[in-house]
Amino acid sequence: MLKKKHDMFCRQECYRATDVKLPANMHSAWGVGGTQPDPAHNRLLDDGTIVPLGKPVQNKVATTLLYNEFIVYDVAQVNVKYLLQMKFNHKY
Fold first, then answer.
1. Is residue 62 assigned to a domain?
2. Is the pTM of this model over 0.70?
3. Which of 24, 49, 55, 69 lies at a 20 to 30 A Cα distance from 86?
4. β partners of residue 58
5. Mind giving me the DSSP string for 17-70?
6. Between residues 84 and 42, which one has the greater pLDDT?
7. Residue 38 located in a structural domain
């Protein structure tokens, strides 16, 4: 889930696993993957949270990451609300 208010100004987008240095004005990194939930099926909650839903689709950007991931460098910023167990069936 993404909070709409944090979309552009607080986190750094990265497209390679080697992008590990975070700029001083950012608090986290968004690893943009080659596979992502279909944005056409996103849900917007009343508090502005965007919940990605839908079947995986190929992202149109060039990236070496398989899927979207969020990297937080300060664990004090993490507040686990949901825990998911997933099984990946890769075709690779």
1. yes
2. no
3. 49
4. 35
5. TT--PPPTT-SEEEE--SEEE-GGG-EE-TTSEEE--SSEEE-SS--S-SB-EE
6. 42
7. yes
- Residues carrying an active site annotation: 69
The 10s digit of each residue's pLDDT in 5-30 is 444 345 566 777 666 677 777 788 88
Q: Name the residue type at position 57.
A: V
Pick from 3, 7, 79: nearest CA to 48: 3
What are 3's two structure tokens?
Answer: 């909070």
Query: Model confidence over 32-60: pLDDT tens digits?
Result: 888 888 989 999 989 888 888 888 899 88
Locate tokens 């689709």: which residue?
A: 57
Q: State how many domains the chain has.
A: 1
Cα separation, 14 vs 70, whole angstroms: 10
